[in-house]
Each structure stands twice: as C-alpha cells, then as structure tokens.
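FAQ

Q: What does a record look like?
A: Structure on top, sequence underneath. For example:
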C-alpha cells in the first residue's frame, strides 16, 4: 500500500498524484491487462523504482488508486431519512465499484483472493457515513 504522506504538498504527494493520474489515464486508454509499471512510470515521469518502492506490486498500486477513488469528495447529503441516506449510499457504492480502477483491480489475479476483504473494508467505510447520522 502507499505510504502515508508526511509532508502534504511535498514531493511525496506530487509523485503520488502523478502516478495515480497516470494509472487512471492508462486504464481509460488501453485494456487493463496491458497496463504495466513501466508504462505508468513513463506516463508519470518517474523511475519505475519509485513506484516499486512505494507500492511494491502493480496490484497494490491498483488497489491504492481504487481506494483513493472511494474517499468521498464531500460528505453525502443528509436526506432527512435513513431510507434516503441508504439510497444515496447505494448509488455512490455502485458508481465506485463500477469505476475503471476497480474494474482493473477486479481483473488482477492477486486481488481475486483478497476481493472479499477489500469489499468488506470499503463497505464499512461507507456504512459509517450513514450510521453516524
């Protein structure tokens, strides 16, 4: 998994942003199974060793990009009812799970064995938003 950023706005954050952007662009341009660390590094203009040092494997990088996608841009609106909040949560969950990074991750051999755990973690993080109201 990616390291926690120590200096927001510093070199670490710039590299992470560039690599994540490269992954998203490549996944939208070519089949996910053709995306490699070398292609990502070239697109992000970083050495491949930088990616391997931070993420170790392509699957870990894809998981990090997918997890970043799951971070809410904003707190979901309070609809005034549990049913309404649940409907918003379901809509956001479907949107997130059908994203390009998640589809690419789902095709990954390494991820298949950990799919249930990852989806469970995702579900818990999103449910907490509804339950906390």
């Amino acid at each position: 998994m990616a390291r926690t950023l120590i200096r927001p706005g510093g070199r670490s954050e710039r590299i992470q942003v560039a690599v994540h952007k490269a992954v998203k662009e490549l996944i939208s341009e070519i089949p996910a199974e053709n995306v490699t660390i070398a292609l990502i590094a070239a697109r992000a203009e970083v050495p491949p060793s930088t990616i391997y040092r931070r993420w170790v494997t392509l699957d870990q990088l894809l998981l990090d990009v997918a997890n970043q996608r799951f971070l809410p841009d904003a707190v979901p609106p309070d609809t005034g009812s549990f049913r309404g909040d649940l409907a918003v949560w379901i809509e956001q969950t479907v949107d997130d799970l059908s994203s390009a990074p998640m589809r690419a991750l789902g095709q990954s051999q390494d991820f298949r064995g950990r799919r249930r755990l990852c989806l469970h973690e995702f579900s818990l993080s999103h449910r907490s938003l509804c339950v906390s109201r």
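Q: Is there anything notable about this one?
A: The helical segments are 11-29, 37-44, 48-55, 58-70, 82-97, 100-107, 109-112, 115-131.
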